[in-house]
Amino acid sequence: MTTEFPNYWAIVPAAGIGKRFSADIPKQFHQLRGDLVAQHTLSRLLKIPLIKRIVAPCDPTSGYWARVRATKNPRVTLIEGGETRANSVLNGLVALSGLAQPNDWVLVHDMARPCVTLLDIMKLINDLKSHPVGGLLTAQINETLKTVTPDNYVGKTVDRNCYRVAQTPQMFRYGLLHDAIQLMLQEQKMPTDEASAMEYSQHKVLTVEGRYDNIKITRREDLTMAEVILMNQEKQRCE
Questions:
Q1: Owning domain of residue 86
Q2: Cα–Cα distances in Å, from 103 out to 173, 194, 206, 231, 238?
Q3: In a domain? residue 115
Q4: Rounded mean pLDDT, 154-160
Q5: What is the CATH number of the domain that holds 134?
Q6: What pLDDT is attached to residue 1?
Q7: pTM of this prediction?
């Protein structure tokens, strides 16, 4: 059964340890402009009234969550994460199974993307609200792209206009996303993001152009970049 006016839910996986970040604590618990990264990310999603609940698959026993004020909001629920991002997202979908209808929308967002703007989230929602499947935020590529051989020689230069950087949130119909991720995992395939799972199930995924500054904190130097981005967004009042 579908709903005429679908609800909106969010899943924010945060179970990873961030191997490339090379730190003693997960990157979502590092300081960023006076708050933890997770606080910035969750607080921005909480500013979207359409989102009825935010599920964060993670290690709920971590003491660091007590320092994330947003987790005290009744719309935020911490649940047990999985071994991989895909497993964590599937855990989040299962946690919503008693609430969400197949035609509802689920926004999946990286906990390590604290710089996403409300305007980009609302643009994604508005552009996809009548779409049968869903899509994701993407950013244009400004640099020249090269393919590289296994021994580190340039293969060829490719047309960057044919490529985009995949970002989050990625927003898909609840039932389709659940089935797509479950299918890949059952067939021992590992989706790199939600869109790749939808592609595997032969769904047509729409792209929505977002801001270039919606970066993912992956390495320690990304914290410095995020600091500057958040400062500029505050000045422009575009958070």
A1: 8-236
A2: 5, 16, 17, 38, 31
A3: yes
A4: 97
A5: 3.90.550.10
A6: 41
A7: 0.94
